[in-house]
């Protein structure tokens, strides 16, 4: 069992039924693990929409709404929906991709401090 499979199992154990988001190179291993789970991936056209869908799902159901993006600009597109969820007290989990800096041929291209950026708008 790899880390992605373990992560998906943990999400299943927490009762996650849906993940809203966009597939990308950096989250393919996670998506492969998701493919064999009971969790349904709802494809969206934009990460911000995925965030709003997850936040609204959390608001309406009381369960954690989960959204998924790729790295860098994809993750920054969660900012507005993160603020929306935080201000409205809506339970939401945002999952973003990342790539290894030292192994990547592109170096630090599209790699930003997403945790630092989201800190003012999130609990953790």
UniProtKB/TrEMBL annotation:
<dbReference type="GO" id="GO:0005948">
    <property type="term" value="C:acetolactate synthase complex"/>
</dbReference>
<dbReference type="GO" id="GO:0009099">
    <property type="term" value="P:L-valine biosynthetic process"/>
</dbReference>
<dbReference type="GO" id="GO:0050660">
    <property type="term" value="F:flavin adenine dinucleotide binding"/>
</dbReference>
<dbReference type="InterPro" id="IPR012001">
    <property type="entry name" value="Thiamin_PyroP_enz_TPP-bd_dom"/>
</dbReference>
<dbReference type="Pfam" id="PF02776">
    <property type="entry name" value="TPP_enzyme_N"/>
</dbReference>
<dbReference type="InterPro" id="IPR029061">
    <property type="entry name" value="THDP-binding"/>
</dbReference>
<feature type="domain" description="Thiamine pyrophosphate enzyme N-terminal TPP-binding">
    <location>
        <begin position="1"/>
        <end position="116"/>
    </location>
</feature>
<dbReference type="GO" id="GO:0009097">
    <property type="term" value="P:isoleucine biosynthetic process"/>
</dbReference>
<protein>
    <recommendedName>
        <fullName>Thiamine pyrophosphate enzyme N-terminal TPP-binding domain-containing protein</fullName>
    </recommendedName>
</protein>
<dbReference type="InterPro" id="IPR045229">
    <property type="entry name" value="TPP_enz"/>
</dbReference>
<dbReference type="GO" id="GO:0030976">
    <property type="term" value="F:thiamine pyrophosphate binding"/>
</dbReference>
<comment type="similarity">
    <text>Belongs to the TPP enzyme family.</text>
</comment>
<dbReference type="GO" id="GO:0003984">
    <property type="term" value="F:acetolactate synthase activity"/>
</dbReference>
